[in-house]
Amino acid sequence: MKIAPSILSADFGKLAEEVKVICNAGADFIHVDVMDGHFVPNMTMGPMIVEAVSKASTKPLDIHFMVENIPFFVDMYAHIKPEFITFHIEEEKHINRVIQQIRNYDIRPGVVLNPATPVSLLEYIVADVDMVLLMSVNPGFGGQKFIPSVIDKIKELRELAIKKNPNLLIEVDGGVNDKNAKLLKEAGADILVAGSFVFKSNDYKKAIESLR
Ligand SMILES: O=C(CO)[C@H](O)[C@H](O)COP(=O)(O)O
């Protein structure tokens, strides 16, 4: 199981230090939530801050766009060279075009589903992406309560991936903690994103290990 701490819950007063510490504590990826104040009712990090995060990090970045006008954001953040860029299918009309736009930068593309968006919408997309991120909260804020229906969605997506894209990575984000991590793994998740569970703990390393 790979763990991607979400720096949304880090102490932004010492962000670079937090990134270094979380890398040393065993993070596999640094999960970066980019929010525009339109797609979600919150705003977070512009490209200059994300570039600073990337420079402080010894682990690959995993950027999750919670934004409108996705192609504009892809062009604006691509020079940072994250491992993954994921975007919401609820927002984008031309999904295959954006997947190709991301691949053209040698970045691995993924799509994101909100908790109420069905897995069936991925039937003709799943073979073209490297990752699907299933949200287990409505996006916008850290520290929200886990929505358990994501467990069935992970199982359904794993079944679809076996048929259409066996290498697909399934990531889950929102309310992840040491109580639900095992269930998420058993359902078929590969990467867990955790913000408050890790950053509000006294021992980041122990928190990451308990999720793994
Ligand atoms: O995408 C997000 C919010 O939109 C965050 O990554 C997510 O909520 C992580 O925070 P927590 O683990 O505290 O729920």
Automatic annotation (TrEMBL):
InterPro entries per UniProt: Aldolase_TIM, Ribul_P_3_epim, Ribul_P_3_epim-like, RibuloseP-bd_barrel
Name of the encoding gene: rpe
Protein name: Ribulose-phosphate 3-epimerase
Reactions mediated catalytically: D-ribulose 5-phosphate = D-xylulose 5-phosphate
UniProt-listed SUPFAM superfamilies: Ribulose-phoshate binding barrel
Function: Catalyzes the reversible epimerization of D-ribulose 5-phosphate to D-xylulose 5-phosphate.
Gene3D superfamilies tied to this protein: Aldolase class I (3.20.20.70)
Stated family: Belongs to the ribulose-phosphate 3-epimerase family.
Binding site for substrate: 6, 64, 140-143, 173-175, 195-196
Classification via NCBIfam families: PRK05581.1-4 (NF004076), rpe (TIGR01163)
Active site: 33 (proton acceptor), 173 (proton donor)
Top EC class for this record: isomerase
Cofactor(s) needed for function: Mn(2+); Zn(2+); Co(2+); Fe(2+)
Positions with a binding annotation for a divalent metal cation: 31, 33, 64, 173
PROSITE patterns: RIBUL_P_3_EPIMER_1, RIBUL_P_3_EPIMER_2
Pathway membership: Carbohydrate degradation
EC number: 5.1.3.1
Cofactor binding note of this UniProt entry: Binds 1 divalent metal cation per subunit.
GO MF terms held by the record: D-ribulose-phosphate 3-epimerase activity
Keywords carried by this UniProt record: Carbohydrate metabolism, Isomerase, Metal-binding
